[in-house]
Amino acid sequence: MTQIYKVLAVLLEYPRKELVENWDEMRQLVSELPNLEDEDKSKLTDFIAWASALPLTKFQAKYVDSFDMTAENSLYLTYHLFDEQDRERGPALIELTELYKSTGFEISDGELPDYLPLILEYVSTMDDAESAHAFLKQTAQAADIIASNLEKNASPYAPLVRVVESHGLLADIAA
To answer: What parts of the chain have a pLDDT lower than 50?
Structure first.
C-alpha cells in the first residue's frame, strides 16, 4: 500500500527527464497499485495523461508556475501551518529532520524536511499502511490548503494533492 506514496512523491517532484522517459512504466505501476480506490487511480492516470502529452520543458514550466511562482501553492507544509516569522516553524523542521535521522531516512539534495514529495518518499519506506496513514494525518490540513489553492487555478496538480489529503484523513476513519 505504501507504494502509492512513492508514486505521488515522483509525480509531485520537479519533472525530470527520467520521468518523462518512463511514462509507460508509470502508467503500468499505477494500474497495478493494490488497494487503491478507483477514483484515486483515475486521478493519477488523468494526471499522467496530461503530463505525458507535454514536452519536458513545458511540463517543467507548468510545475514552476504552479509551485515556485505562487507561494500559496508551496509544497513546503510548514509554510501553510505557521506564519512565515513564526518561531514554531524552525523547531518543527528540526523535529522532522530528527525523526528522519532516527529511522535512517536521508534527506538528499539539501531539501527542507517538510517538502511534500520528501514526506511522501519517507512514508513510502514505512512497513505498514496504518503507520503511513497516521503519519500522513499530520499533513492533511496543509494538503487541503494547497489543494484548495491549486483548485482555484484549475491546476492539474490539485487532484494529486487531494489524494495525499485523503490518505491522511484515512487515519481518522481507521481510528
So the answer is: 171-175
